[in-house]
Specification:
The complex is a heterodimer of chains A (480) and B (182). By secondary structure, chain A is an all-alpha fold. Chain A has a single domain, classed as Cytochrome c oxidase-like, subunit I domain (Cytochrome C Oxidase, Chain A), CATH 1.20.210. Chain A has 14 helices and no strands. Chain A is globular and about 60 Å long. In chain B, 31% of the residues are buried. Chain B has two helices and nine strands, in the order ααβββββββββ. At the A-B interface, helix 2, helix 7, helix 9, helix 10 and helix 11 of A face helix 1, helix 2, strand 5, strand 6 and strand 7 of B. The structure holds protoporphyrin IX containing FE and copper (II) ion (CU).
Chain lengths: 480, 182
């Protein structure tokens, strides 16, 4: 592997980890404000919330992309230039977002639901800066995504890259598609569909912004676009992480490499399809949305869980059951992350049921489930990769230190932090409230509780990433 | 109902996490010879089949309870117009002028079918009804340019509170309203 790919990947990791710590601190500020332990004015709170959400989604998306790009180099030649452009545009885009937020006080939430960005409650320039920041990120990420897709398609035909030759049960195809290639391609297609939708959304917003009232958008259409983009992106982030796990879990465990079987091929092709409709569950409380779409939303959300549990999760459990594994912090992160992903998925399926959503929609149940499959799921997938990668910069031999302590802090901190969201959500405490009214008094208790455990989580994260940062920094500034 | 969902979640999560812990421990105990799972494909197919059946049962049990189908064939005895705006709820039996919205006190009867006609004069909000135990009983979005009709029968008398559940700006958490059921 060329050193420049190791360098750019190290740079991604350093950037992601630093932004992660900052974003967690913003999260802690929010939680302690909600608990009444500190006092922020509401504008500061909602600005923090907006920046926290956007930063977290952004960094864990690029973390997945960077990992996939690094591993893809094993199979095909990828473009270093595209990777570098994406890096530069990500840094610029994030700085613009932070400028719009921290300086311009833009606080429309990470979903910037139309027409909120146009109700200027902040600096006049913050809205266009925000919209252009999205454009910069969108362009950078589209270049990267398309470039990776092209790299794959140079080696594999369209049907091979989707592993269609594996559909027949005892097929012995001439060209085998590694699961990593299949899942990467499936995720990249999904990512591209999000980015195209985001471009359309950004275009419609900018058009209205510059039309001086001549052009007004339709709120229902905009909400559908917003959630197609937001929900699907959050899902694809996780799939990028899974592509890495299919490649690395066996390798770091000292086990034979996983192959694409007929059911793996089917499962991921089906996932590509189902996931495109799952976003509809964000629209359940919009009764004007056609009922057929609402029911498709519940159907797609339910069905999407079958290939993921029946194939991916089942396979991970089978790979471990009664089998000698070289356990280390990398595959432990993958394994614990999978368990977290399942728990978050259970919370998600409950909330994706229309009659439950009627009671849980936009309560703290929502951040409860998505923080579960992020903070104790996808983040751990990426951290496992970072950890493994940082040893690749030396001799490739993983040496764990204080693994028990790190895991305990992250897991116990994480569980307490998440439990607080679930318990409050089930007690009808609203999400996105800077302060809770007396009717939601239990929210205050749970906020302090959750914030305390999140501090433990942060401690675990800092211990965990210390060594990774040291090795990555060392490599970036070395002369290789 | 919400606490039922919480228990369901807790039980399922404890079960699934226990499976992970059990599998992890089986690996630690495995020693050098592999005693992995046999007949994996059959077990996998059984797992998928059972999951599919369970989901199908849940799906067919819950879809008819969706709010869109509730009280669909009945005629509401009262309708209440609701216009949400930063950061107020305006409620009235008669039409509300979005440019000069006014409110009147709302009083509903126990078990009387009401229809709330919910819209917004600026950004998207939510019209979420909380009962006297401060639990959500019903909700719908308040979206500019659209009217969402929410039908409901309140079984218990008392004061019901309204909160906004869609982030609408820095005053989101102070938006509130109420009505009484007698
Ligand atoms: C320990 C770490 C974390 C803490 C303390 C934290 C805290 C919070 C808090 C307090 C909120 C606002 C909840 C509310 O609606 O009242 C929030 C929202 C959010 N968080 Fe986190 N979070 C953490 C990790 C993460 C991670 C890993 C992600 C990864 C994607 C993430 C993504 C988000 C998003 C997207 C929102 C929604 C923002 C919005 O509503 O606009 N968070 N977080
Ligand atoms: Cu609101």
């Amino acid at each position: 592997m060329e050193n420049k790919f190791k360098k750019i990947t190290s740079l991604w990791i350093i950037t992601v980890l630093i932004l992660f710590v900052v974003a967690i601190i913003l999260g802690l500020l929010m939680r302690f404000n909600q608990g009444g332990n500190i006092k922020l004015d509401p504008v500061t709170f909602y600005t923090d919330m907006t920046i926290h959400g956007l930063t977290m989604i952004g960094i864990w998306f690029v973390a997945g992309m960077a990992a996939v790009n690094y591993i893809m180099e094993r199979y095909v030649r990828t473009s270093y230039k595209a990777n570098l452009i994406a890096y530069i545009m990500t840094v610029v885009g994030v700085l613009m977002l932070w400028g719009a937020g921290f300086i311009g006080k833009f606080h429309a939430g990470w979903t910037f639901l139309y027409p909120l960005p146009f109700k200027i409650m902040w600096e006049q320039w913050a809205t266009p800066l925000f919209l252009y920041a999205l454009l910069v990120l969108g362009v950078g990420w589209t270049i990267w995504t398309v470039s990776l897709m092209i790299s794959l398609l140079k080696k594999y035909t369209l049907s091979q890259v989707f592993a269609w030759q594996h559909f027949k049960r005892d097929a012995k195809p001439e060209v085998e598609t590694p699961p990593f290639v299949l899942i990467s391609m499936i995720s990249l297609v999904g990512v591209l569909s999000c980015l195209i939708t985001a471009a359309a959304l950004d275009f419609l917003l900018l058009t209205e912004y510059y039309s001086n009232g001549g052009f007004i958008n339709d709120a229902l259409l905009m909400k559908n676009l917003t959630y197609f983009f937001g929900h699907t992106l959050a899902n694809e982030m996780l799939y990028l992480g899974l592509a890495v796990i299919y490649e690395l879990f066996s390798e770091v465990s000292g086990r034979p490499k996983w192959k694409t079987s007929w059911y793996v091929a089917y499962a991921w092709n089906l996932t590509l399809f189902f996931v495109l409709f799952a976003f509809l569950h964000h629209m359940y409380m919009d009764f004007v949305q056609p009922e057929t779409l609402q029911i498709i939303g519940q159907l797609a959300s339910y069905l999407a869980s079958i290939p993921s549990t029946g194939v991916t999760i089942f396979s991970i459990l089978v790979a471990v059951y009664g089998t000698k594994i070289n356990w280390n912090l990398a595959n432990l992160m993958f394994f614990i992350g999978t368990a977290g992903w399942v728990s978050g998925g259970i919370g998600a399926v409950i909330d994706a049921t229309i009659s439950n959503n009627f009671l849980l929609h936009n309560t703290l149940w929502v951040p409860a489930h998505f923080h579960t499959y992020n903070a104790l799921g996808n983040v751990l997938f990426s951290l496992g990769f970072f950890y493994w990668f940082s040893f690749q910069l030396k001799d490739g031999i993983i040496k764990d230190k204080h693994s028990m302590l790190k895991i305990l802090l992250i897991v116990i901190g994480g569980i307490g932090f998440l439990a607080a969201f679930y318990f409050a959500g089930a007690d009808s405490v609203a999400r996105r409230y800077a302060n809770y009214p007396e009717e939601m008094a239990s929210g205050k208790f749970w906020a302090t509780f959750g914030g305390t455990f999140a501090t433990i989580y942060l401690l675990g994260i800092i211990l965990f990433i210390g060594g990774i940062l040291k090795r990555c920094f060392g490599f970036v500034f070395s002369r290789v | 109902m919400q606490s039922l969902l919480l228990y369901l979640f807790l039980i399922l999560t404890v079960v699934s996490t226990s499976v992970f812990i059990y599998v992890y421990r089986s690996s630690i105990k495995a020693g050098d010879k592999d005693g992995g799972l046999t007949n994996v494909l059959t077990k996998r197919m059984w797992f998928i089949l059972i999951l599919f059946v369970v989901l199908a049962i849940f799906f067919s049990a819950t879809v008819p309870k969706s709010p869109y189908f509730m009280f669909k064939d009945e005629i509401p005895s009262k309708s209440v117009n609701v216009t949400a705006g930063q950061y107020f709820f305006y409620m009235s039996y008669s039409a509300i002028n979005p440019d000069a919205p006014t409110s009147e006190p709302i009083e509903l009867g126990v078990n009387e079918l009401v229809e709330f006609r919910v819209t917004s004069r600026d950004v998207t909000h939510t019209f979420a009804v909380y009962d006297e135990n401060n639990q959500v009983v019903a909700q719908t979005q308040a979206m500019p340019g659209y009217v969402n009709n929410l039908r409901w029968k309140f079984e218990k008398p008392g004061t019901y509170k309204i909160f906004c559940l869609e982030y609408c700006g820095a005053g989101h958490h102070i938006m509130r309203g109420s009505f009484t059921v007698k």
